[in-house]
């Protein structure tokens, strides 16, 4: 079982969904991934719903802020990267060419966070854990297994994260050309060059959830009201599909050839 008790700086460690219909999203992902729910009261009648797998926190869903929706920002998954000191790392963002959207703030006793974008526009959360480490379970069917920035300038994005996080970026050629975010010489995330067929899709972090069968999961997502954006296809690391949930949030699923413990 891919259980976690902590993450090193630079490692994607949590994902959550800002959505237009929280109850409907809970029904969709609960059916698709087998999540149960732990609803945390955030005050003002709002809840941060933790999706749990085998009793462990796997991801979360919450109602998107009204101002985001008014700006035309669609429902979306956000990737959070663990940092040792949110204030220190956020302080490096502007100098490295990025933009800070939310200065560091405390999330009750759970942790301290900020929201920023790299110079190519990919928005990411920066998470300094306290009581909430991030995902307690990963790399298993129903849990997230990979986080990838799709961008039109991989070198610029990679240099940004090297600068603010002290990580390394590695350009591999085998088994296929790809850029890896390395933490202590281990792959922690990836960068993919935006392809022409992606059209006007913004530079964005994509979340990959592990599944037992990409084809059946894609079919089930459709039966639950979602859409298949990228039909199931084989890749060197596994069979994957790109999906959209009923509220319009993009995510991917993958049946990994080799599962990381």
Word description of this protein:
With 261 residues, the chain is α+β, with helices and mostly antiparallel strands. It folds into two domains: 12-129, 2,3-Dihydroxybiphenyl 1,2-Dioxygenase, domain 1; 144-256, 2,3-Dihydroxybiphenyl 1,2-Dioxygenase, domain 1, CATH 3.10.180. Helix content is 18%, strand content 46%. The strands form two sheets. Strands 2-3-4-1-5-8-7-6 form an eight-stranded mixed β-sheet, with helices on one face. An eight-stranded mixed β-sheet has the order 10-11-12-9-13-16-15-14, with helices on one face. Helix 3 packs antiparallel against helix 4.
Please give a handful of descriptors for the protein shown.
16 strands; 2,3-Dihydroxybiphenyl 1,2-Dioxygenase, domain 1; 261 residues; alpha+beta; 46% strand
Summarize the structure.
The protein is α+β, with helices and mostly antiparallel strands.
SSE topology:
Blueprint: E1 12-19, H1 22-33, E2 36-43, E3 46-53, E4 56-63, H2 66-70, E5 76-82, H3 86-93, E6 99-107, E7 111-117, E8 123-129, E9 144-151, H4 154-165, E10 168-172, E11 178-183, E12 186-193, E13 204-210, H5 214-223, E14 227-235, E15 238-244, E16 250-256
Parallel strand pairs: 1-4, 5-8, 9-12, 13-16
Antiparallel strand pairs: 1-5, 2-3, 3-4, 6-7, 7-8, 9-13, 10-11, 11-12, 14-15, 15-16
């Amino acid at each position: 079982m891919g259980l976690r008790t902590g993450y090193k700086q630079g490692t994607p460690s949590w994902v959550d969904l800002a959505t237009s219909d929280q109850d409907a999203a809970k029904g969709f992902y609960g059916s698709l991934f087998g999540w149960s729910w732990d609803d945390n009261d955030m005050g003002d009648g709002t809840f941060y719903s933790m999706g749990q797998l085998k009793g462990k926190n796997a991801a979360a869903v919450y109602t998107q802020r009204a101002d985001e929706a008014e700006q035309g920002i669609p429902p979306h998954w956000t990737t959070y990267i663990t940092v040792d000191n949110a204030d220190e790392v956020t302080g490096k963002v502007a100098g490295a060419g990025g933009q800070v959207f939310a200065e560091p703030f405390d999330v009750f006793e759970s942790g301290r966070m900020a929201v920023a974008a790299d110079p190519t526009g990919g928005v990411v959360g920066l998470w300094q854990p306290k009581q909430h480490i991030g995902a307690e379970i990963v790399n298993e069917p129903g849990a997230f297994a990979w986080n990838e920035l799709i961008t039109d300038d991989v070198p610029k994005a990679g240099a940004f994260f090297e600068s603010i996080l002290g990580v390394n970026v590695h350009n591999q050629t085998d088994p296929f050309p790809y850029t890896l975010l390395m933490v202590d010489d281990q792959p922690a995330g990836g960068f993919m060059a935006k392809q022409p067929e992606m059209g006007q899709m913004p530079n964005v972090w994509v979340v990959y959830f592990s599944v037992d069968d990409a084809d059946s999961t894609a079919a089930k997502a459709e039966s639950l009201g979602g859409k298949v954006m990228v039909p199931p296809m084989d890749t060197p690391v596994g069979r994957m599909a790109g999906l959209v949930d009923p509220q319009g949030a993009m995510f991917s699923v993958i049946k990994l050839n080799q599962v990381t413990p």
